[in-house]
Amino acid sequence: MKKTIRIIAILLIFVLIFIFLNRLLKPKYAENLVEGSMINQYYNEPKDHEVIFIGDCEVYANFSPLVMYEEAGIKAYVRGNSQQMIWQSYYILKETLKYEIPKVVVFNVNSMKYDKNSEEVSEAYNRLTIDNMKWSKEKIGIIKESMTEDETFLSYVFPILRYHSRYDELTEEDFKYLFKNKENTYNGFLINKNIKPVGNLPVKRVLASYGFSSECYEYLDKIRELCNENNIKLVLIKAPSLYPYWYDEYEEQIRKYALENNIDYYNLLEKAEEIGIDYSMDTYDAGLHLNITGATKLSKYFANILMENYNLTNFKGDPVYDEKLNEYYEKIK
Amino acid sequence: MNIILLILSAIIYLSYGIQNCIYIVFSLLSSYFVAKHVKNKKMLLAITIILNAGILVFVKFLPYTNLNFLAPLGVSYYTLQVISYLVDVYKGKYQYEENFLNYALYIMYIPHLFIGPITRYDEMKKQLQEKRKITLENVCNGLLRILWGLAKKLIIAGRVSIVIATITSDTLSYNGCFALLAMLLYSIELYSDFSGGIDIVLGISKIFGINLSENFDSPYFAENVKEFWRRWHISLSSWLKDYVYIPLGGNRKGKLRQAINTLITFSISGLWHGVNYIFWGIIHGIFVLFGDKYKTRFKWLNRGINFLIVSILWSFFIWNNDGTAIQMIASVFTKFNIGEVCSNILNLGLEVADWIILIISTIILFIFDGNKQKLKEKKINDEIRFSLICTLAILILVFGIYGIGFDVNEFIYSKF
Questions:
Q1: What domains can be seen in chain A, in order of their start residue?
Q2: Which of A2, A3, A14 is the best residue to mutate to test the B interface, defined by the most B CB atoms within 10 Å of its own CB?
Q3: Can you tell me the ipTM of this complex?
């Protein structure tokens, strides 16, 4: 009996060490590669948003929900990630709907041009999006749909299998954020105050094909159906990022889809002038993403569109959001 | 349990391609049926051996053609088992096996088809015939052996393979002392990789209640090449001794015949590894013949010299081409660029932490090898056994080289 207890104790210690090592060796995404910690910040948020943004970096860098709150009293959250592919957007939306049902879901259509064979699909981006997601049916789904050929499902279950070689790269950050996360975003918006003006305007290069793949349409259909089932208004947008180049052929396909399915579509790239975006001042990486001033202009503009067209509540005066707004302004000072 | 093991083996074997099965089924059926009538029938024995050995020789030439995909899994291992079985039955060493399933399992037992060891039927017969049970003790001991093998493979061999790949990628820049470093490290890699693989095979077998014989006996503690071959790949060395060297006359027919027999045996050993290793085999044969001539009275000095000789001869494995290998060996004696090696040691693919882990784990491996007997005799209780299993598992998980970009399944000896 004593022997059995001793053996169980040994196994228990082993399990605890194993869990500890899994946590320790997994990147914390707190000070570096902060994009990896965006997905889990949502879990700590009060779930009372009326607008949810999904999509790639063009949403988390360009739309500031707190500016929208200040402008129109909208409670919004950006569930965006670096290079979030459309199949990932679908699963992240599905996961979000388990926590709350917003009135509007805004999807940035930039990812429609990437299918599973695209060069842009990579393990590094998958990890940033998936690593910190809570375990659920949706996480299993997103892993299965996103894994590249070299990846294994098991390495998502046990991060040590992927990150074991980090033992000689551990920093203070790994210990500091062993059991906690660092809040790097404001309702999913990642602040960047740098300025790097657009140098050359994007050149239209000839592509072998401009057609969106059937798998992207399939996921866009799924997102649409998911919204319909939950009585959510789906809104498609193209954020005003100059790079990568947004072809007329892409635009036509999106317009056609929106028209056929009675979905609102806003090409904000075409409205850059009206919004007041100055690409010599309002971008931090020469036109890929907007900086804080650009994002503020865009968020105010889009907040008014949302407020006017989608029957949203004006939450102005909410103490929690007012406090957040103060913190936000402290940060961007 | 035999039938389950046989079905599992067949399924795994089939997964490597249906073309694999033609050879093994031929070897299995021909040896099973011929064995029933082979006693005292020299011609029948000779024809069956020639047919089976012919396949093996044919396969060894396949890498030089476009038909390499026809090379069946484990042919180097099961062909020698088939030959030893037929010869032993012919000589009346034991009775032929009537039970087809037991014999089929002896030939097709999947763990040893990847990497050996080459087992003899009399060693397996009793174990296959008796009723075996999976016991907790066997599972724990088997698991411990598997993890020990994995540690050798993933912590030591995995790291060394990165350095070897860097050095061999550019023979113009990496020669002289770089080549010597590659040779010394390859000795460690090959041993960790091969013996690690054998540990895994022995561990898996242990779980199923099958005890296979050891294939290594601390080979780098040998004081000359002759002794090295008594300690390295024991199942192949003893097979060659029993079924090639002794039948050729061994040392019974004078010094000259002994020398010729030794060289023939080592040529065959080289051929077993592949056609381009025959030269390597002959050189080993020469060192075996003159083994006592360079032995000093200092045990550790002898071990050092032997390690150096064996390491230099591994060049034929490292560079895979006799010409390049000889060039690299020559560069060791003509180019003394030790300073360059020291200043570039961190440009060979390993970071400081990796070198430290490699050095520490290699020292542990050699300490273990040096005290193997003592450690084997030591009785350990279940608590210590569980602790060792858990510790090894953690060490492998953290310090093992595996994951994206590294093929864990690839064992050096599985290609022979």
A1: 2-332 (3.40.50.1110)
A2: A14
A3: 0.83
